[in-house]
Amino acid sequence: MGRSPCCEKVGLKKGPWTPEEDQKLLAYIEEHGHGSWRALPAKAGLQRCGKSCRLRWTNYLRPDIKRGKFSLQEEQTIIQLHALLGNRWSAIATHLPKRTDNEIKNYWNTHLKKRLAKMGIDPVTHKPKSDALSSVDGQSKTAANLSHMAQWESARLEAEARLVRESKLKSTSFGSESSDPAPQLNNKTVVTTGAPPPAQPLCLDVLKAWQGGWSKSTKGGFIAGTSTGNGPDLESPTSTLSFSENPLPIQPVGPTNAVEYYDNEGGMVKEEGEEEWKGVTASLQDVVFAVETPWSPESRKAENGHVGVSNFMEGFADLLLTNADDHNESERGGDSDNGDGNDRSEGFSYEENKNYWNNILNLVNSSPSDSPVF
DNA sequence: AATTTAGGCAACCGCTCCTCT
DNA sequence: AAGAGGAGCGGTTGCCTAAAT
């Protein structure tokens, strides 16, 4: 729109911040709040543009920022949310308390993306690359279709969740936030364009829908259209998927007892190495195999069981993290990894699965309102 | 020990969206 | 309704450090 960037002003400093600058910014915001970022540098006595100040504050100086290694749970959340939301780092960050979008973005680009690539999965589309599955006849196509459907369904759920959210907004008042004198940091739309700032981000609705499915379906099953009780039914004729109330005929890959491998600080016990991704392709095939049958119309009829996007994403995330777990275990002298994916599968129960999603939901539920926005 | 290479992260840049006038 | 300005997001860059040679 023809507006000149604020940083074009000559004489403004760029580059790394000095401790003195940090102190000035910190002191000013603590006393006055940031107010208008554009006006802040002059008031705070900084030779920086407002944009730079905002970035420094949100990514580094904010007191509620958690630094250090990402826990396995955080990784899992990122992977799943990225599968759902794509590169919407701010939306993802909403669900990771004390993590900044920039940090998550960097972590994705430097760690998680590489893991996906090593697994033969396109980190952008989350589609399994064909070569990763080429050893199994017909699977690559199925996997690609499956992934595509998962993505499509994700997008659809997103759209529907937005409708749900908007309908909620019409009936519910969220006036409490406006009483906060502190400037709002996350007052923008985090999910879709054109929507008003959500009281709760999209993922909450989506995952709540999933949660509803978990809570009401029978063991291992998933019902996408199940209402959470306080929201509209998400069942939609537009869905590419149909879900039954019958048990899922498969067990997801991997134990997913990620918590077992946390240290007390919530950090990873060990960083991944080259070795631990060996055999990942086989595990990926396990996932594909597992979900393939329910996705074919014939087998749906035959087995009377379906798999939803959640299971795909879950297996997907588990796959990433489980391999690290396996490696961790072997590093500690365990001999669990014998190359047989079935062993891992058997370790994942319905309760664990449910608990896993509950954990994600707890995280989701707590982050938008609980996380200190300022 | 010196140099090169790779990885990680902080910060910048350009764009889009939202709000206000 | 349209334009200007502010804020935030996502992609990218560049610097610093650790690892490898």
Could you walk me through the main structural features you see in this protein, from its secondary elements to its overall organization?
It is found in: Nucleus. One of its GO terms (molecular function) is DNA binding. One of its GO terms (cellular component) is nucleus. Residues 9-61, 62-116 form the HTH myb-type domain. By secondary structure, the protein is mostly helical. It folds into two domains: 11-61, Arc Repressor Mutant, subunit A; 72-182 and 189-370, no CATH class. The protein has helices at residues 19-32, 40-44, 50-61, 72-85, 89-94, 101-118, 139-171, 202-216, 280-295, 297-303, 309-331, 341-346, 350-370. Helix 4 runs antiparallel to helix 11 (309-331), helix 7 (139-171) crosses helix 8 and helix 7 packs across helix 9. The structure holds a DNA duplex (21 and 21 nucleotides).
